[in-house]
Design a protein that fits this description.
heterodimer, A: alpha/beta, FAD/NAD(P)-binding domain, five-stranded parallel beta sheet, 12 helices, about 25% helix, B: mainly alpha, 8 helices, about 45% helix, about 0% strand
């Protein structure tokens, strides 16, 4: 089938690669400002009512399942674990946790002498956090105890919670640990034609009632209404360069046919693996090490969150399948205090529900050794008797943790991404403390720790922002230091990872980048 | 698993059948789950010989003897191996999944020529369990068979595919008391100890 295109022979104002958390916000903002925008998404356009299902196995397809080569002492689990591949990207299957970073997350070097400071501060990003919270009608508590922002949120906090969340909060209370319902991009009351959550629990399989925000539901339809063209099933294979050193557009493939989209500006929002991979795969004679890579930092310092799960067995039923996966959290262990704790930075702890496949993965992968056979069968027969907590721990940036090109090629003939990751000593110390605290909370309620699952979540870094072009890829607005009309706008620009889920920050940064671009274009500076 | 934790060896919900609730599910989900109860489709990747060995392997990995359940799990593995969809991640130096499984099963056969695993009597099962245990630790012996092969990667790949299939089967959902699909109705009763009327229940779980 021929691809229907609006701007086949036309140079558009902006071509956005990737229709995820960042791409959705950019598309909306730029098209509402009157710019001609094309968004290219590698994955399909899905209809929540027809294409989503209450089923873990069937909905793995929401992840980027194309094979990545993984390496290092702690090779990452990719696919559904940390990336999306459909219109809406990761927002289609994320858990909806919508935390702001804390002020000192933006200057870990000044605070702790580790990592690097961001080229922008919390205060500079705060208005964009506000804007995004309103756009998705974040539900949150009357007073969120940690960080700089304590509320109010546009919508009241979710109620009721889930059994696992109540268990978590009771355990915290016994130990004198403050806990809270988290801010969530999940509705607690109707908003813009979307209904409140029914506590179905399948956030990671795609929300069928449309209660959970995604850019598929919120931002991209608005972008299309303002004239943006969204092309799904279109895999961008190369950023094209003009001899004058500027980007001229992109090459992409749809149904095995290659196309070109010419653009005055190219914005990569393809996430922490595909963005660096595309820059590296777009190398030219003029840019032999890949585009925007004069610093050598493209692909470097990628960071997941350490995301160990602890499961404890109780004498009573908990039923971790019930309700939104994360309905209770604590950031009591977030603030950095290296002198007392022996490591820098910190983490969030989330009560974290799970359906059978997520649960069995955690049991099989217990840190003491693989669980299988009779032991596995008996452990799963106790499914309803576990409580479960997951950490979101800050992983420090290390330039050796990186995305490079593998020798293997994919269906487009392009070298696959090779993703190398190893925890550092600080990361490991933090994980040990977090396991202790997660265990204590569950034990306070009478649970016995049964399984500890080494896991990671999210990906950040790989095209970090900075003021020094020798040590960073983009500036504070995502503009690459090397190519003025090539931007990066996604989690790959993160300088450090924080102990908070990243989606809110990705979107706030995208709103800030979009405003910057619109202003520059109006002044004819771009 | 820590030793002091006692686990049950049988279902805590002997009278619960999650499929009784299927009329309350959306049609797309219902079709997906129902299809898992139908007889397994034709093999697309595995050879018959591989299938028989794999069935015995799954029997041990999952501690499951029901033949229709094992047939479902093996069919799931066959579908994964035949699928053009990627593996999400593959460790550097590990074979692509299809080759890894084919090669590993072949080596298993070579290292256990004395046994007929299709027969599945106690001697064979014990030998198979021992071999799998060695593979899980990466220490299966007989150098001429196993040298240069990533035993652990093979074992983990098999175990993870087998568990994905098995714990996606509605009969297993019923056994573990999982509420299953929950759209469009969702959950109303959310406090500890509360259940909606259609969820798995058993008096023996409320001492």
């Amino acid at each position: 089938m021929t691809l229907q295109r609006k701007y086949a022979d036309e140079e558009v104002d902006a071509c956005i690669v990737g229709a995820g958390a960042a791409g959705g916000v950019l598309a909306k903002e730029l098209s509402e400002a009157g710019m001609k925008v094309v968004v290219l998404e590698a994955g399909p356009m899905l209809d929540p009512q027809q294409d989503f299902a209450s089923d873990e196995l069937a909905m793995r397809k929401l992840g980027w399942q194309d094979t990545r080569i993984v390496d290092g002492t702690d090779p990452l689990t990719m696919g559904h674990n940390n990336s999306g591949r459909s219109v809406g990207g990761g927002t289609v299957h994320f858990t909806g946790v919508f935390l702001r970073f804390h002020a000192d997350d933006f200057h870990t070097y000044s605070t702790d002498g580790i990592g690097e400071d961001w080229p922008l501060s919390y205060d500079e990003l705060a208005p964009y956090y506000d804007k995004i919270e309103k756009e998705v009608a974040v539900s949150g508590p009357k007073h969120f105890p940690w960080g700089e922002y304590h509320g109010p949120y546009p919508y009241p906090e979710r109620e009721p919670l889930s059994p696992n969340a109540y268990l978590f909060r009771q355990g915290c209370e016994k130990l004198g640990i403050r806990s809270s319902v988290p801010p969530l991009a999940i509705l607690s009351a109707p908003f813009e034609g979307r209904p409140p959550c029914i506590n179905r629990g399948f956030c990671n399989q795609g929300c069928m009632p449309n209660a959970k925000f995604s850019t598929l539901l919120v931002h991209l339809p608005k972008a299309i209404n303002s004239g943006a063209e969204l092309l799904s099933d279109c895999m961008v294979t190369q950023v094209l360069m003009h001899p004058n050193g500027k980007a001229s557009g992109v090459a992409f493939t749809h149904n095995k046919v290659s196309y070109v989209q010419k653009a005055r500006m190219v914005i990569l929002s393809a996430y922490a693996v595909e963005t660096p991979r595309l820059l590296l795969n777009s190398a030219t004679v003029q840019f032999p090490d890949g585009l925007a890579n004069s610093s050598g930092w493209v692909g470097r310092a990628i960071m997941p969150h350490s995301s160990y799960d602890v499961m404890a067995k109780f004498d009573k039923e908990i039923r971790i399948y019930k309700g939104t996966p994360v309905l209770a959290t604590t950031q009591e262990f977030y603030a950095s205090n290296p002198a007392e704790r022996g490591f820098a930075r910190g983490y969030s702890l989330h009560a974290h529900g799970a359906r059978p496949l997520e649960t069995v993965k955690g049991i099989i992968g217990d840190e003491r050794g693989l669980v299988w056979g009779k032991q596995l069968r008996e452990a799963m027969l106790e499914y309803n008797f576990y409580g479960r907590i997951t950490m979101v721990g800050e992983v420090l940036p290390n330039p050796d943790n990186r995305v490079t090109l593998a020798e293997d090629t994919d269906e487009y003939g392009l070298p696959r991404a090779k993703v190398t990751f190893s925890y550092g000593e600080n990361d490991r110390k933090m994980i040990q403390e977090a396991i202790g605290n997660m265990s204590a909370i569950l034990e306070a309620e009478g649970g016995k720790v049964a399984f500890v699952h080494p896991d990671t979540a999210h990906l950040m870094g790989g095209c970090r922002m900075g003021t020094n072009p020798d040590r960073s890829v983009v500036d504070a607005y995502g503009q690459t230091h090397d190519i003025p009309n090539l931007f990066v706008c996604d989690a790959s620009v993160f300088v450090t990872s924080s102990g908070s889920n990243p989606t809110h920050t990705v979107m706030a940064l995208a709103a800030r980048t979009a405003e910057h671009i619109v202003n520059k274009v109006k002044r004819r500076e771009l | 698993m820590k030793e002091e934790i006692r686990m049950t060896s049988q279902s805590r919900y002997p009278f619960y059948n999650v499929m009784n609730e299927q009329e309350a599910w959306d049609a797309h989900t219902r079709n997906i789950v129902r299809s898992r109860l139908e007889p397994s489709s034709q093999l697309r990747y595995l050879e018959m010989e591989e299938l028989q060995l794999l069935r015995s392997v799954c029997r041990v990995l999952l501690d499951e003897t029901r033949s229709e359940m094992l047939a479902f799990v093996v069919s799931h593995i066959d579908q994964v191996l035949a699928s053009p969809v990627g593996e999400a991640q593959r460790k550097a130096a590990v074979l692509p999944q299809g080759k890894l499984i084919r090669d590993g099963l072949q080596r298993m056969r070579l290292s256990t020529l004395l046994y007929d695993f299709a027969a599945m009597d106690q001697t064979e099962l014990a030998a198979l369990e021992q071999l799998l245990s060695q593979l899980s630790e990466g220490c299966a012996e007989s150098a001429e068979v196993w040298t240069g092969f990533d035993q652990k990667a093979f074992f983990k790949s098999l175990l993870s595919m087998a568990a994905d299939g098995y714990y996606s089967h509605p009969d297993i959902w019923s056994e573990i008391g999982y509420g299953g699909p929950a759209y469009p109705r969702g959950y109303v009763r959310a406090s500890l100890g509360q259940i909606d009327p259609w969820e798995a229940n058993s008096p023996m779980n409320h001492p």
